[in-house]
Each structure stands twice: as C-alpha cells, then as structure tokens.
Inverse folding.
C-alpha cells in the first residue's frame, strides 16, 4: 500500500473521485468524459500548487518517505560494475554505511553512502541507516584506497544520525567521525557529497567534507532532528513542525546560507515518484561536478575544499 503523507490527502480524495467516475463509465455505460477531464485538470493544478508551496515540515516528511530511493537504488541506476567492499579491518562490517568501487562513463570511482531499509526487516538489518563507528572507519578505508588509486569519491548522505547506543560509544563513535572530518579535509582526490534524504548531525557530516555538496530538493540537513530540537527548546517533541521552520534545514535554506553548492531538482511529488528520472537528475549533477573537479591538481582540490568550508558562516558585530 502506498504511503500517503498528510498534506497529500486532498490529492488522494480527488483521485478517488476520478477513479469512481471512470468505474461508473465502464460499469453503468454512462459518459462522464467531460467531468473526468475537468477533475483531472483540477488534480494537475492542485498537485502543482501543493508541491510548489511546501513548508519545511512537509519536506521533512518527504525526506523520510519509506519508498524514497536509497544509496543502493542510485548506485544501480547511475553506475556500472559496482563491487561492494565490507569491513573496517578493525572490528567488523556495518550494513548501515556501504561502499565500493564502480564505473561512471568509463571512469573508476569510489561510492560510499548511508543505507536504510524500505521494510521493517531490512531496516533492522541496516540499523535504520544509523552507522556504528566501524561504518565510518570502513568509509575512511575506502576513501584512502580511492586516494591511493586516484579515484573520485562520491558520497550519498541519508541518515537520521550516527547510532547513539552504548556499543557505538564504547567502540569510539565520536573519534571515528572526528577522524573522518580531519582525513576528508586533506584528501587529494575530488570528493562529492549528495544529501538524498535526511542529513542528520555528525552522522551525516562524517561523509560530507567534500569539494561539492548537493542536496535533493526535498532533503534536509541539520545538526539535530526537528523532534530533538523541539524536545530541547520547548520540552515538547510534538512541536517538531515549529522547530523545522526555525532551524532552516531545507535545501533552499542551506543554499541561501552558502552551506551547499547546489540543489538537485526532484520529480513532482518527491524522488520516490520516479526513481529512474530522479537518478538522471543526480547523475547530471555528478557529471557536472566531476567536469569541474577532475582538471584540478591535488593541491588545488585540497585548497578548494579548505576555502569552501572557511567561507561558510557570517560574522557581524
């Protein structure tokens, strides 16, 4: 059954009326062609109106849609000859953060990304896309391998945050993320990060220190979830919608603040509406980014990344 978001209910009700008239046309042999045509026109205009005026909380809901394309979905659509690598050579393998090598237009690349599930069983297996420290150490192992063989690194960000459990803390969660930030800053190959769903806190930042950072139109990137912020600020998680507006966590907000480089458009209604078309949008952004970064020298890549992060934020007296 399709997952319906609250703000989509008017569309669902209108579609139900259209389907009912179509059914009557067949069963009762009554011509409702004109009525159906008018309702379909109304449906199209209502769809554009709703999705062109999304509130921050609406975008959060779309970013969390259970059928939203995942890292593996994009890998399957965009790259060829993907080979997944496992393990951090220290503790074990983390299925919440995957990575490997692949081909893009004949160029070898390293692809890394958070991986959540689309059903309960897979979500449990993937720990709901929340990596343990071994996930970040695996990612860094693959980045260092990419640097050795001069392969660009492409990261897909989609996590509520790094796993905050006792086991993760015991194994050095904060150290693993901090090390990634330091090491990624100095990588001598092009690094591209794309937020495809939720970009939550240090769990997202652990694979986001990049030359270019992109966000899908309905993705979010924040230091904490709206529910978490509402709990801290107002002691009431139910005020998440208000927090989402105050936090400025949407792609247009972050583009305006110069935190991301560009926004990747989504198909009407969200990336889950047409995975193949959305993958084409993402692939176009990756190709454009590589065309700009590939000609740069190792020193220029590191300097560009340094300058980019130094320029984020404003100071006023």
């Amino acid at each position: 059954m399709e997952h319906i978001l609250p703000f989509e209910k008017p569309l669902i009700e209108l579609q139900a009326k259209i389907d009912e008239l179509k059914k009557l046309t067949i069963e009762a042999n009554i011509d409702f062609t004109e009525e159906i045509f008018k309702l379909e026109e109304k449906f199209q205009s209502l769809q554009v109106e709703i999705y062109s005026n999304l509130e921050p909380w609406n975008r959060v809901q779309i970013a969390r849609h259970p059928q939203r394309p995942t890292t593996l979905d994009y890998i399957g659509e965009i790259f060829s000859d993907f080979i997944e690598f496992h393990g951090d050579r220290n503790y074990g393998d983390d299925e919440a953060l995957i990575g490997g090598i692949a081909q893009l237009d004949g160029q070898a690349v390293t692809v890394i990304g958070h991986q959540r599930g689309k059903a309960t069983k897979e979500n449990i297996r993937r720990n709901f896309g929340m990596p343990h420290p071994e996930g970040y150490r695996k990612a860094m192992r693959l980045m260092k391998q990419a640097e050795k063989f001069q392969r660009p690194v492409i990261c897909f960000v989609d996590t509520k945050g790094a796993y905050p459990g006792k086991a993760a803390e015991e194994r050095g969660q904060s150290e693993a993320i901090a090390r990634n930030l330091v090491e990624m800053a100095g990588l001598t190959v092009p690094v591209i990060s794309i937020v495809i769903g939720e970009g939550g806190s240090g769990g997202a930042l652990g694979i986001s220190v990049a030359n270019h950072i992109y966000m899908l139109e309905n993705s979010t990137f924040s230091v904490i979830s709206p529910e978490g912020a509402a709990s801290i600020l107002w002691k009431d998680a139910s005020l998440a919608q208000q927090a989402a507006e105050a936090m400025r966590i949407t792609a247009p907000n972050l583009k305006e603040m110069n935190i991301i480089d560009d926004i990747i458009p989504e198909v009407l209604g969200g990336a889950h509406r047409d995975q193949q078309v959305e993958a084409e949008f993402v692939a176009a952004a990756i190709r454009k980014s590589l065309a700009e970064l590939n000609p740069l020298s190792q020193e220029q890549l590191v300097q560009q990344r340094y300058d980019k992060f130094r320029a984020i934020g404003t100071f006023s007296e």
Notes: The mean pLDDT is 92. The first helix runs from residue 9 to 27.
